What we know:
Layout: E1 3-4, H1 9-37, H2 59-98, E2 104-105, E3 125-126, E4 135-140, H3 145-149, E5 156-160, E6 163-164, H4 172-179, E7 186-192, E8 195-201, E9 214-218
Antiparallel strand pairs: 1-2, 3-8, 4-5, 4-9, 5-6, 5-7, 7-8
Helix pairs in contact: 1-2
Region (Disordered): 96-125
Keywords: Chaperone, Proteasome
InterPro entries: Nas2_N, PDZ, PDZ_sf, PSMD9
Amino acid sequence: MVGLNMAGPARDRVMKLMQDKDKIESEIRDQTAILETNNVGMHDSLVDSEGYPRNDIDVYKVRHARHRIICLQNDHKNLMKMIEKGLAEVHRELLGSNGEGPSMNMAATSNGHSNGASAGDTAPRPVAEEEKAFAVVGFVSEGSPADLAGLQERDEILQFGSVNHHNFEDMSQINTIVSHSVGQQVNVKVKRDQNVINISIVPRPWQQPGLLGCHIQRKT
Length: 220
């Protein structure tokens, strides 16, 4: 959970949104577990070759889980946008009170790894001069691990796991981290507008090819 070293209505709203986010991520994991138990994903057919409901799965539970996951993913995306706006409001409130930027302590939370949801909280802060982007995010597929973690198109990557602009050589380094981190949390630091945001993403197989569901390319 993000630690914001100040009190105020904006902070309280953000903390409540964070709690709601954690609950949604927990329920997504629960619903995903139902699909995994039935060995199906979000788009596998629920009927056999003759058009009858498959007898090797609980069709009712799978349909309900799929519908619930879609609803929860939409709620999660909206919450992440509200959290980002709320944190910006906290920043403005503190600037108004003492003319200095807020002190925001980032501590990664430990969420489950099955759904690829964000395991860290996004707390924007100004970009430091020594921080340089080495890659940029292209498209982000809806419902993907990258999407659920809060990654957005045009985010500039300052750090991806152990890779930053000091040691970056080519995109194979990113591919190696992703392939070796399936089901594990990877800390990503991005520049969005003029702020730095910390994101935790869990590479995992999902209903489309790839482990992240986004395109990352070298920054030109």
